[in-house]
Design a protein that fits this description.
By secondary structure, the protein is α+β, with helices and mostly antiparallel strands. It contains 17 helices and 23 strands. The protein has a seven-stranded antiparallel sheet with strand order 3-2-4-1-10-9-11. Strands 5-6-7-8-12-13 form a six-stranded antiparallel sheet. A four-stranded parallel sheet has the order 17-20-21-22, sandwiched between helices. The chain is globular and about 70 Å long. The chain starts with 12 loop residues before the first strand and ends in an 18-residue tail after the last helix. Mean pLDDT is 90; it is low at 1-7.
Amino acid sequence: MPAEIKGLNEECGVFAIFGHEKAAEITFYGLHALQHRGQQGAGIVTSDGEQLHIHKGTGLVNAIFDQEHLQETLKGSSAIGHVRYATEEERGFENVQPLLFRSQTSSMALAYNGEIVNDFALRTQLEAQGSILQTTSDIEVIAHLIKRGGYLSLEEAIKQALGMVKGAYAFVLLTEDQLFIALDPYGIRPLSLGHIDGSYVIASETCAFDLVGAEFIREVKPGELIVIDKQGLKSSMFASPMQRSLCSMEYVYFARPDSDLNGLNVHASRKIMGKQLAKEATVEADVVTGVPDSSISAAIGFAEESGIPYELGLIKNRYIGRTFIEPTQSSREQGVKMKLSPVRGIVNGKRVVMVDDSIVRGTTSRRIVRLLKEAGATEVHVRIAAPPIKNPCFYGVDTSVTGELIAAQYSIEEIAEEIGADSLAFLSVEGLEKSLVHEDSLDMGICKACFTGRYPTEIYPNAANTNNKQ
């Protein structure tokens, strides 16, 4: 079978606010709402109008920040924050964002969610021109490109730098008196604009707005650069917007169910995918259950469409994080054992439909099927509310090696045998698109590259070697 090397990597998350007396505190709560997007590092940089202040660390948001940090260290009325996932080899403190760069004229702090596919080429060029890079983060490359703008205004230097960058990014930059926000021309990453108490806020997901009490205004447009300062908000385009290719895995797995992406609620979208899956892959069974948490919505939709009752067949231990957040294989497997428990009274003697959001390498699915059968399930039919993942992602999801993907190596029947399922079916690519792209979703499109191999951007040599350098 494919080598079980690394788990599915969560996206990172960004949050920003400009012009609020409680900037650090609001950013802390915003990052807490985005904690599911990265659990191995977080940071906040604030501006008091004259100086930038930083605090960051490895671990969970609650463990990194306390009241002293929020009230004394992180002074100011503007802030940017970041939560980060890291592979085992990229877990160094130096890569935790935001990254802060100080100079004689002004300072700037940067953070982003995404992946730069021409990072290797840009690093080679910068090093040949004398730059000394201190981290493996793409965001440092962007910072160097900006500073090479010379006597251009910062806004123009950012536009020039982003014009050289290829890939997926939701980008925030804070100076002493300005906040800059940008989204890649394809809109691969989610990024939304809101306001609270007359101040603008930015977040990777709208669930962060709900927690801090902000009101959603709109999504940042692909290719858009927003500048916020004391004069207000100014929007311009640094690149021609392309057909939007929002990462479909945001709907399938990454985003929280209470977030909205491109006008679609994530929970509702997952229910639609579950209903479509039931139409495409009917099965005779007694109960439907979902794998907590991201598959519950799809399982409910499957049950509603199929008429098979939905039951809580698996219980999640709320004190255990998502298994893929652990970068090593041994810790991931132990995490599955600690994380889920079957409800024997529900599944014993029953034919069970187990709905999950995806199969990447098969380890987790195999363990869950075994748990259900050990609890007395007579049959376990696995239904996946997404197409088979057959191709690597170069936009921030840690699947950069095709050999790690079980669907790229084996047929559906072989995968079913490997995970011990009585049957296995995936949602079709057409069914996924039908579920997510609607006539009233103007300029909407989804990136399906991990399913189809058709990438929205050019993929550069060495892209796989630099994957996940957020």
